Amino acid sequence: MDNLQKRNLTFITIGLIFMLSGIEYAVILPTIWRYLQILDAPPYFLGLGLSAFSLSSLLIGPFFGCWSDRSRTTKSIILFANLFEIAGNFMYFIGYSKWMLLCSRLVAGVGAGSGSSIFGYITRSTQPDERASIFAAIMACRQVGLLVGPAFNLFLRLCDFKLGPFVVNKFTSPGIFMCLLWVLEQFVVLAMYWDVPPISTTEGAVLMVDLKLEDEEEVPLMGSDDEVHTYRAVTSHQSEPSSSSSEMQPPHEIPWFDSKPFNSLSASREFLREEVIVLLTAQFITLFNQTALETMVTPLTQRYFSFGELGNSVMYSLCGVEVILGFLFVRWLSGKVADRAVLAVGLVICCTACIWCLVFLCNLQGNYEWEMSAFVIGVFLQLLGLPFVAVSQVSLFSKVTAEKTQGFSQGVRRSVGGLATILGPLWAGGLTNHLYIMLGVMLALLLMVSVMTALSYGRLTQPRAVQCAQSSDSGG
Question: What is the pLDDT of residue 134?
């Protein structure tokens, strides 16, 4: 099997991992509210339960990213992380108390932290011009899971039996179901995942030269093979290898936990640059708003439309269809339009959605048909903007940060997103009866990041040019 086939199978496996994360979210979110209620949990536990998953993912993500950057492998990290998904979902199945439920989401969130390693691997294994479409495809896999998940709920809600000392019902069954799926995914990773070298012909030379240039300024992403060869030619007179054989040393002979890629990483240069701050802010605000609205939706549908588990599952299924189509459209659009333009369009749509919700959903009045129409339009607009922002900001972030520490950088990005998914449900959980305040602050945040994006639009460019011996940063 050649490297191309291994690479394709690896991407399929990554897609399955993201699809399982979507299924897990879709089978647990519609039922956790009632699950907590039968365990006599206070209302704020809904926000705590949803935030717990993100908290552990936030804390562990940079560690997994650093691990993958130093070892240049991700397979072992994924296998290790999936064990926490298995354990966390089994704890959710056991239930017993609201504290057990809360701890189960904390443990499962550790498994989600491997996403930083996966995004780092994708960045190292792709060229900048194809990266946005691959990110869109991977993210669409999660939306497929969100679409398929509610279909599983249709039969999980019929469960009513005992498994030894454990009760299997519509509330506990999602836990054991996801536990079994993650066990199966372990075998898929073992059989179909390879840490394929990202650049077959020059990777060894480039990596060895990079390690020798530990005192040089961090080198950004390399966009093409031509740039790789140019970089080697310029730097060869500065750091001459001892022999041609050592120059072409394969990457797997590098010490397993070599820390040299991190010696030149300067936080002030890498993460406090204008374009990086804008992208991290966009990541935080869009995820904050998304999770806040998701937390609000279940109580809202229960209050106005009397939706139960079945109604919510159907709703999430229809939402999944829309988002999948959105990601497919963005994947096509990314090949024709610059990423920063896609980001700008997404922010405009998100602002429009928030304004609609602020005007029409805060005080639903009128007949049932009007209330349902206003609700559907608000949800539709909110989901419409999500693929534009999600794909463009992760693609742009991978291009404006250094490639050899991409796992750590993606870990930082996902931690910022994790913080948003912690605060979003907590914010919405306490303000479900004060929608004007909740949505007003969310709109203000969206307008702020839209202005930031407009002011920094010129710096959100394609990959910065590879720095040469006498050149300065040319990418803004």
Answer: 83
